[in-house]
Design goal:
heterodimer; A: alpha/beta; Rossmann fold; 19 helices; B: alpha+beta; Uridine Diphospho-n-acetylenolpyruvylglucosamine Reductase, domain 2; Uridine Diphospho-n-acetylenolpyruvylglucosamine Reductase, domain 3; Vanillyl-alcohol Oxidase, Chain A, domain 3; 17 helices; 21% strand; binds flavin-adenine dinucleotide; binds iron/sulfur cluster
Amino acid sequence: MEWDIASLEDLEHYIWRCTACGTCKVAYDFGPPSTCAPICPAGTEFGFEGNMSSKGKIAFARGILDGTLEFDEELLDDMYRCTICGGCQNQCQLDHKPFIPEIMEAMRRKAVEAGKGPLPLHKNLTQSLKDYNNPYQGPRRLRTDWARPFKKAKKPIKNIMKEPAEALFYVGCTGAFNQQARAIPTATASLFQKLGLDFGILGDNEVCCGSTAMRVGDAEEFKRLATHNLELFKKLHDEQGVNTIITSCAGCYRAIKKDYILSQDYDQMMDGIRVVHTAQYLHELMQKGELPITGELKTKITYHDPCHIGRHLNKFEVDTEGSELWPGAYLGMSEEDCIYEEPRELLAAIPGVEFMEMERNRSNSYCCGGGGGVMTGFGEWAAKNASLRVEEGMGTGAEVMASTCPFCNFNLGSGAQRIQSPMKIMDVVELLDQVITEQE
Amino acid sequence: MDTATAKKVDPVLLQLQGIVGEKNASDAKHIRYAYSYDLSFVEPKLPDYVVMVQNVEQVQEVLKFANQEKIPVIPYTAGTNIGGLCIPERGGILMDLKQMNKIIDIDVADGVAVIEPGVSHAQLAAELTKLGLRFGWPVGPPSASVSSCAISHGIGGLNARYGLQSQEITSMEVVLPTGELVRVGSCAIQKNAWHSTLPLPKLDGLFKGWLGSSGVVTKMGVNVHPAPPLLKIFTVSCETVEEMYSYMFNLSNYEICDDITAVSWWLSQVPIPYPYTPKPDDAAEWNSYATTFSWTEAERDARAEIWEKVVAEEKAKGSSIEITHYPEEALKGRTQLPSQVVGSTKNYCKQGGAGISWPGTFTPAKKWAPVYTRWREILIGHNLSPSVRMSMYRGVHYGMLRAMIPFNKQSKEETENARQAIVECLRVDLDEGGIPYKPPVDFAKEINLRADQGYLMLLKRVKNMLDPNDIMNPGKLGI
Ligand SMILES: Cc1cc2nc3c(=O)[nH]c(=O)nc-3n(C[C@H](O)[C@H](O)[C@H](O)COP(=O)(O)OP(=O)(O)OC[C@H]3O[C@@H](n4cnc5c(N)ncnc54)[C@H](O)[C@@H]3O)c2cc1C
Ligand code: SF4
Ligand code: SF4
């Protein structure tokens, strides 16, 4: 399969569009009233201009390209001290805006190609991908541990390799292997069963989506996994009647929607298959009147927007040929693909829920701190940053911080634990599972 | 010895880490590299160390140490000055102050905000709006520092009413290059009184407008003002710079505006065309916006009546002036401040790419027309847009005359072309009595070439008194 994954050199023109104005350092809005808040987890923690936002990362990219900087240990550390959350990207207005996360990852890819990256802890992760097809060194058979209770309760989940189904529930490695995050696939499958959906899972045939490999710059490993998955998805569509892939993992969703399209065969492989996040899927059901919420939850809930199903899904319009402005000009951006409203509307639909919004929300959501390989490479900082987010949530008076990503869920959980916060971290699906009963 | 071991024993780094903590001092090349360039054409140069200070004591300790060792110190908050002022001429310690970012107090009754140097325009704006207060925001990046703008004689959106940002300074706390902590203005007499620099000797002048700084400001009081709710923007256009000057001069006599600004056609475009594009024949060469804020509709209408009278008077003189519609996006960017869009340089650099420099000057208003006419020739000659702004300052008939020149920084030739054009423009302005603000060293030298010898002697003597070892960002004064 052929892939169009840009090298740092391919992006050089865009790197030279950055004026170093530093507008990317804060989420500022004129309003009125004006609001202003830090947006960069790396800048918040490490503070030097190089650590700050896209301004800093582009400085590194320039230095690497002009030969001033070499991939030494300190540079590598700071290149990977970035959650690739796109918070900075959201502030920038110049032609390189659409390519900012791409520039950051291309820099990492260059380091990997040079045999210098990723960081040693990331290497464990990519090695695990090679050995186990998941980043958690989890033996294949453990992948379905979360599904055992269903079997026991005589409500087994279909194995889609054996039985046809309309929808594939693509679980993702974090939901499958991370003890805390397992509650998410469990609640998702429980809810789907209650709703009588025709779905199945890949079970121990599921392999990682490749997101983590891509985020840390290992394009080869990403391509291996993504190629496997694209071929598998096509096969499932052709042979098992799968038309929809549902995932409750923001990282997997982002990978399939935004990284897999870098394959030249994407359209052919995914022809007839729709990819949706659980929040979207449930929201659609709600709109059709097919989400019968019967219970109530008397609680104050805030919502944390995961970067991967939020601003990472911005659609950018670029004047590639130069027909409107000039070649490469950034023309505009649409948020229509970003999953901002669906989770909020689902939460608001639960009787008794009082919804509390944090100041940094939607496109200016403050990253939990776990993405871009940071949770693996810098676990302590990731949790520290998550504590900041939990504190922001506590400031609203919320008792529950809901999200839609197992990765955020785990990291926010660590953040809450770190500061002994009473905040409960839950997935939207977990909350819905509590208020929806079995359909007769 | 390998480089890693050599690094560990660098005594300067060890000393700095001892003061600010290991995490907050670095000599790593990539960290220094990110401070080695800015938007301007000034050639990149690396500092030797970067420290991120957290409090006044650390600022003092770093300066004492640097002074003792005669190591240059370059204060830095966001580095957006467009003059290469934070690019070290002689290496040294870059002192990043952005984490000293507390708004210490906003005293509504005194109309004073007391801030640390890292407080950004965005941060202060968010707090002031909660209190119904305002400040003269520049069109610069929201993340840039309020106090750095003020000590550099910056210009904001209330300059026609209250003057420059530096005229809004009410008191300061400063660490001298030798490490002593001093105060100027009322806070020097009563610790918590930040209301005024007068009637004491205006010692705040010792720390304002110095290229390269003469101390490190650690606290500053600035005037903040009640925000009237009704905004009216007077927009006109006309064909020639002479007509525009005449209108602005006339209107400024009535002192009814917060900001009276005119921009050439090229600057009213979003973005500034790069390279030069001829103006369409049917477009006016000059557009002006003048902002007024009023408390009541009657007040607003009275201001509008004066403005209409001014326009009528100008028409009677035969001016081509017309009440007009200013391009919406450009107008927003200049009146809804601080502005993320303009601050991110979109309106200026989006087409040019990465680079922007200016001949930014304080020039007698009567000279605007002749200087602009020459600038236009020079800039077009260099295939650059004559994207010029003229703004009236408070109660006096001089003001800002500047050309925002974007360029493609990826290309050495295009950068050099912009530099040459700008220096040429600057000479023209200096010869007409204008003075550049926040200028790069090239400009500082041009200023000093024309300076009175007594002035230069005084400048040196004061600098020497404050900074005997010439450690404060040396080389920027051009003397
Ligand atoms: C697009 C754009 C538009 C702009 N428009 C305007 C405008 O309308 N009006 C305007 O005035 N400016 C404007 N600027 C320039 C600049 O943004 C402002 O002057 C800004 O406030 C400077 O803040 P900074 O934090 O970037 O300062 P820096 O560039 O970091 O510092 C400025 C100077 O102050 C010194 N310094 C910093 N901190 C201290 C300290 N604590 N003590 C002593 N010296 C110190 C530095 O060494 C340097 O010499 C614009 C810039 C851009 C990019
Ligand atoms: S990335 Fe964009 S916002 Fe950030 S410094 Fe560069 S141009 Fe400015
Ligand atoms: S992507 Fe996120 S963590 Fe990385 S530089 Fe941008 S704002 Fe900071």
